[in-house]
Amino acid sequence: MDNQKSLLASGERRTLILAGLMLSLSVAAGIVPFVFVMELVRELAGPAPERQAVVLLLLGIVAVLTVKAVCYGAAHVLAHTTAFRVLSTIRLKLVRHLERMNIGFFHKHKMGELTKVLNFDVEQVELYLAHGLPEIASAILIPFCATAIVTFIDYRLGLCLVGIVPLVIVTNRILQRHWKEMFAAYFLSLKTMSEELMEYIATIPAIKAFSKTENRTEKVVRTMNAYNDYVRKMSLSMVVPAGISGVILEAGIAVLAVTGCLLLRKGEITLYELVLAVFLASAFCASLARLSLSKHFGIVFRNSSMNIAKILNEQPRECPPPADGKPGDIRLEQVSFSYEGNRDALTDVSLTIPGGSLVALTGVSGAGKSSVAHLIMGFFKADSGRVLINGTDISSFTETQISAMISIVQQDVYLFNTTIRENIRIGKSKATDAEVEAAAKKARIHDFICALPEGYDTLTGEKGTRISGGERQRIAIARALLKDAPIIILDEATSSVDAMNETLIQKAVNELRCGKTVIMITHHLSTIVNADRIFLLNNGTLAGQGTHAELYRDNALYRHLWNEKSSADTWTIKEAH
């Protein structure tokens, strides 16, 4: 309930209450015509109908139907207006909240899950407020009004009507015990399908490149089929209780009719009252049957509210003292870290990166290089130990302050589907064209851009597909230069580029060095021989540190890696004899 209340502002709750009152008036006005019609039939069937009474009854019917239409329309306008306002508010709130979260949050929550929350779950809140809530309220109000009038006709008829309700409730309770598990499995299946589809769409080029289309497609189809199975099971679990309830309700109408006939024979009620009671009993049973089928609205709404609240309840770090922006020392003190409780990515790592130096983190894949960088950037929190920048624990900084201190150039550079100029300007939103071009020159990408027909106004395409990998890396370096952060992290920036681009990137890195701390993450040892200090990681531990010459001389693992690399560089394909 708290999750549901938190999604609605007080003004929106008041509007929904007003909508509920209008709906109540509409339901009441919808019941009254039954009484007026029966009185009209009684009058017209009499020996001498009074014209004035007939006219008044007809006017009364028109009046109450008009009130019903106006109130019903007003209730739905208020409900829909509020629902769409809530939808917009929640979606904007989620977007602003996601903007404040660190990258570790997005490692924890897959893109499919977040997309489902932003689209499906938010839409379910709107659907419940605009359609589900009015439907449920109407299905509850009509039986109350019908019961009141039938009881007024004769209390025994009223007892016949309400006497079937406990049977319906008990039956539904027995048959719906497994609903919770069924819906939980359904929601999990929906989440899994969303994640699989998002991953499939995002990786189609790679899937096709490695001829894995059939296998990957089969996996997605299996996930979709599993989701469809849960939909069918869920539908069946809802229809069966509704069907049994319908039989009980119809039996209740029969009991009321028989009781009414007995009372009619005794002269205790009139024929018109009996007919009116049967009509109202039909409306009573139809509403309760509709209520059984509408329960899924509330279940889906509660689950969606919980998913939205789960995201909104994850808060970024509290505001700390401001950072001074100087490229001071970076220290890891006895740091241990694991991803989501899996095996340790880092174990008791201690190292110091001097301010203004160029250092390298190297080692085989899975050694822990990127984990060190993730902790420095504040993507995750260490399980134990401390990470300090300028002598201040990184947990004391806000996301904004960390972002201002650190720039990163990753292996997979993301370019937005806009111009090259605007992609570089992401590093500094208010940069002038001259500043953008100056950064591009330092990144050794200016000449390439000028050679393009549209120059800096060239569109890069979705995810930068119109630009090659080496050029994307240098555009990312231009961004970092423009941002002018005191700490630069290059995460495998040269791992997948050709020799010419690697040389240009190395020259651009030399531009980055001026007055900054540069951390290179790579397993290409040839690119780090001139680093001030190299940290060698192995199986999540620090296996050695020093210059290239020192490590080659004193560290067997480093020497082995270097020799393996040298052998690979001179490897050639022999001619077949």
Automatic annotation (TrEMBL):
<dbReference type="Pfam" id="PF00664">
    <property type="entry name" value="ABC_membrane"/>
</dbReference>
<feature type="transmembrane region" description="Helical">
    <location>
        <begin position="271"/>
        <end position="293"/>
    </location>
</feature>
<dbReference type="InterPro" id="IPR036640">
    <property type="entry name" value="ABC1_TM_sf"/>
</dbReference>
<dbReference type="InterPro" id="IPR017871">
    <property type="entry name" value="ABC_transporter-like_CS"/>
</dbReference>
<feature type="domain" description="ABC transporter">
    <location>
        <begin position="330"/>
        <end position="564"/>
    </location>
</feature>
<feature type="domain" description="ABC transmembrane type-1">
    <location>
        <begin position="17"/>
        <end position="292"/>
    </location>
</feature>
<dbReference type="GO" id="GO:0005886">
    <property type="term" value="C:plasma membrane"/>
</dbReference>
<dbReference type="InterPro" id="IPR011527">
    <property type="entry name" value="ABC1_TM_dom"/>
</dbReference>
<feature type="transmembrane region" description="Helical">
    <location>
        <begin position="238"/>
        <end position="264"/>
    </location>
</feature>
<dbReference type="InterPro" id="IPR003439">
    <property type="entry name" value="ABC_transporter-like_ATP-bd"/>
</dbReference>
<feature type="transmembrane region" description="Helical">
    <location>
        <begin position="128"/>
        <end position="150"/>
    </location>
</feature>
<keyword id="KW-1003">Cell membrane</keyword>
<keyword id="KW-1133">Transmembrane helix</keyword>
<dbReference type="Pfam" id="PF00005">
    <property type="entry name" value="ABC_tran"/>
</dbReference>
<feature type="transmembrane region" description="Helical">
    <location>
        <begin position="16"/>
        <end position="41"/>
    </location>
</feature>
<protein>
    <submittedName>
        <fullName>Abc transporter transmembrane region</fullName>
    </submittedName>
</protein>
<dbReference type="GO" id="GO:0015421">
    <property type="term" value="F:ABC-type oligopeptide transporter activity"/>
</dbReference>
<feature type="transmembrane region" description="Helical">
    <location>
        <begin position="157"/>
        <end position="175"/>
    </location>
</feature>
<dbReference type="InterPro" id="IPR003593">
    <property type="entry name" value="AAA+_ATPase"/>
</dbReference>
<keyword id="KW-0472">Membrane</keyword>
<dbReference type="InterPro" id="IPR039421">
    <property type="entry name" value="Type_1_exporter"/>
</dbReference>
<keyword id="KW-0547">Nucleotide-binding</keyword>
<keyword id="KW-0812">Transmembrane</keyword>
<dbReference type="InterPro" id="IPR027417">
    <property type="entry name" value="P-loop_NTPase"/>
</dbReference>
<dbReference type="GO" id="GO:0005524">
    <property type="term" value="F:ATP binding"/>
</dbReference>
<feature type="transmembrane region" description="Helical">
    <location>
        <begin position="53"/>
        <end position="75"/>
    </location>
</feature>
<keyword id="KW-0813">Transport</keyword>
<dbReference type="GO" id="GO:0016887">
    <property type="term" value="F:ATP hydrolysis activity"/>
</dbReference>
<keyword id="KW-0067">ATP-binding</keyword>
